[in-house]
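Quick one: structure tokens for this chain, please?
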Amino acid sequence: MNPGRPAKLVLDEALSIRTAAAADIPALHALIEASVRELQAADYSPEQLEGALGTYLGVDTQLIEDGTYFVVETSALLVACGGWSRRKTLFGADHRPGRDETLLEPKSDAAKIRAFFVHPAWARRGIGSIILQHCEDAARAEGFTRFEMGATLTGVPLYRRWGYTEVERIELPLVNGGSLPIVKMAKADEMA
């Protein structure tokens, strides 16, 4: 399999993907907290996770307003979420310091892949890969040919698998005095 361009991935018939809505925000908060606390516990300390929840790891309502955030659901439960952005902010939730809502230029800037979380009960079933493909396709439809992200340590293997490479490691200062390491990753679209 070519790591730069995944084969077409399809959701199980019991799952569907759709654009997130404002009504999803309470369920997204719960999903993200469950995902962070369980799936990222092997890569970050409890203090790091506590300090990052709500600032760097959380809901970014701008993505929902822009129509670039997606949820995967069963008939009654959100099981995953993730999105992309046409704005300069690379990562973080609504309360992240230093947000930059400036619009990107598709011909010269990289679309931002943002805020992927999977409920622990649904992890490692390929759902993150499906959301990633969906986001890349949506960004391509708007003219973007490059992608970048601020990946958690937990997410790095997934993104590496699909052709993203490490650009730099960043230590994000937390309100509790600690820091959260993330990895800036990038990918050029081979289809361009």
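The helical segments are 25-39, 46-52, 61-66, 127-141, 156-161.
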